[in-house]
Backbone:
């Protein structure tokens, strides 16, 4: 009869291998251990009647987020009329999420997504408000207001440009023919042969728009509007800040920048949970 117990084979396990000549143990690069997940943050404040305006506004924000997720209808809430304690309660409840948007223009506006997806806090000159939507509306309207115009093939061409002219012609053609709702057209630079002068020349030829979106997670996703209508540069970086995916997208707004409808509904429900905990 063969026993169910088997001795492990020799040559395996701790101490089975000879030590390094220098006496040092092999060191491994630390791998990510934790996953960022949502946990409700309840502001530590004493609630009284003086904070009724903030609580009322949060109720409206919750309802607006659910409505936006179900119907696509956005909403805005002005925070300028709140006193300091009420404004502080709003700020602590909103927190800071992973996505930020910078919109150049007059005035320049910064939008920070709260810990509730699709709920944005906008700030700028004489501007302090909450906006509900997949992305701030101004990110659409200001995106291709060129800070640096798209020069196209007229851009000065340095030595070493090889494949960029063909890609540029494709982007100009897709931009000119794009209509709202069309399927997104993607050029994946990561999979295409190109030189460093190719990239530099395309940056000059496409110009620079007025909107930059940064999403932070395990790595970063940087989304920048070019000076050519409907053309975005979308770049993904890993946790070591190494570029791992580099694309141009011809679309109204890259999907990666948008809060999904189900996320907006979930945000509304979570705000309601925070309100119940506060009361």
Residues:
């Amino acid at each position: 009869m063969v026993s169910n117990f088997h001795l492990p084979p020799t040559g395996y396990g701790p101490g089975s291998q000879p030590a390094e000549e220098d006496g040092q143990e092999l060191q491994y690069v630390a791998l990510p251990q934790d996953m960022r997940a949502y946990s409700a943050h309840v502001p530590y404040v004493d609630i009284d009647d003086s904070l009724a305006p903030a609580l009322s506004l949060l109720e409206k924000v919750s309802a607006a987020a659910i409505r936006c997720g179900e119907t696509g209808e956005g909403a805005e809430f002005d925070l300028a009329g709140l006193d300091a304690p009420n404004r502080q309660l709003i700020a602590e409840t909103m927190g800071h999420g992973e996505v930020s948007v910078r919109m150049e223009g007059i005035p320049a506006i910064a939008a920070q997504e709260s810990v509730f997806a699709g709920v944005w806090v906008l700030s700028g000159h004489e501007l302090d408000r909450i906006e509900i939507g997949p992305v701030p509306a101004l990110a659409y309207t200001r995106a291709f207001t060129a800070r640096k115009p798209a020069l196209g093939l007229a851009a000065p061409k340095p030595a070493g440009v090889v494949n960029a002219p063909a890609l540029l012609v494709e982007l100009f053609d897709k931009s000119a023919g794009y209509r709202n709702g069309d399927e997104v057209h993607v050029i994946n630079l990561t999979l295409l042969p190109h030189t460093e002068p190719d990239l530099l020349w395309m940056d000059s030829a496409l110009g620079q728009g007025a909107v930059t979106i940064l999403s932070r997670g395990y790595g970063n996703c940087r989304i920048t509007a070019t000076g050519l209508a409907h053309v975005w540069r979308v770049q993904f970086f890993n946790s070591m800040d190494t570029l791992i995916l580099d694309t141009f997208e011809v679309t109204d707004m890259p999907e990666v920048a948008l809060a999904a409808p189900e996320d907006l509904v979930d945000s509304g429900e979570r705000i309601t949970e925070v309100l119940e905990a506060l009361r």
